[in-house]
Amino acid sequence: MxxxxxxxxxxxxxxxxxxxxxxxxxARRLNCRRFFLGxxxxxxxxxxxxxxxxxxxxxxxxxxxxxVDCILDLDEKRKKLLFESEELRAAQKKVGKEIATLxxxxxxxxxxxxxxxxxxxxxxxxxxxxxxEELESQMLLVPNIxxxxxxxxxxxxxxxxxxxxxxxxxxxxxxxxxxxLGEELDLIDMKRAAKLxxxxxxxxxxxGALLELAVLQFTLNHLxxxxxxxxxxxxxxxxxxxxxxxxxxxxxxxAYACERDRKYLIGTSEVPVTAYHSGEILAEADLPRLYAxxxxxxxxxxxxxxxxxxxxxxxxxxxxxEQVVVCRNDDEESLRFHLEILTNAEEVxxxxxxxxxxxxxxxxxxxxxxxxxxxxxTWMPSRDSYGETHSASRFHDFQSRRLDLRYRxxxxxxxxxxxxxxxxxxxxxxxxxxxxxxxxxxxRVRIPDVLQSYMGGREYIGPK
Length: 464
Known about the structure:
eight-stranded mixed beta sheet, single chain
């Protein structure tokens, strides 16, 4: 089944079975599979304020009016079925007690009545299953509600400038782009990479390979000093983490699928790191959880034909260090961490001495799950503009509801966690700025001071 945009809608079979330890109402009786935990928004928001949800969809330019109306209709039918089945079960229980006191024909009549009630309950269960499948499918299409401070707009051209840092460099010699520098200094080989793996692929070699490892290691160390726990995570995952982090449904065309094994290559370590505690109830005292996930990432870049085809800007495989925060269900705390992880990423770019700007992403440029997102765009001389290099997002409990990621407070009450993530660094895209900004008239490239110790004390990359 697909939605109006041609995106595949996941069916119930795509999701994990109900957690046996979860005391979900009607779970054992109606074979419920944590229906509303597998959704994105709290169902009460849709019930109590559907217009707010619809307006959020319009702000994000993700139409959801029909889905919301359909959900409300299906929800009413579901509640009616549950109510009627509960009444039948109460009657079944009453008749069961009476049978024990009866004999003869009267007892046989009661047994027959029990059979009739059981048949009606079974019919309700049979009707409820497909209804919940459709309800779940529709719920997965509804976007999270953007924060009020998210600006209106349709594309990244409508993003709003928050601040700028550093001075755009001026060169008194003809500059080369990163690909020219990479080929002349024997750092990048795209021709042989294409021979091996097709278009939008690359090979980093010599100091190019060392430079990427240096910037990744520097960033990881910076986050460890900030209290983040480093993680090396799987890059091949099941469907559940992709759905749980809201990459599916809707993002299938951007993911590489290993169909034989029913697994997917991740486009970011956000997926396995955020899903790390899925299905768990954490202790409030153990929050927040701060993780720095390192992984290779894969994206098909479907629909990007003809865009940024030269060099390292838009490629299929890259390496990334991702900040992931799991915190209490508190809007103020969530916002505070959002600004903190953004600051952490800015500190990395500042240490590399790369001019950048921060933008508040508009509604139309937000993804389905984000409450708000800030992008860092770093100056790239060959493009004569800033290029996106980092994104910092907060989701409230949108992802945790899908992942069944919760915590228990001091009073014993269970809540869904809030989740956030941020690109601390992604390479090789950041190498575009590093190579181009640090090029010199004699063809050499100066290595940023903070990376020199990671490259054996080298100060320059020069011709071989």
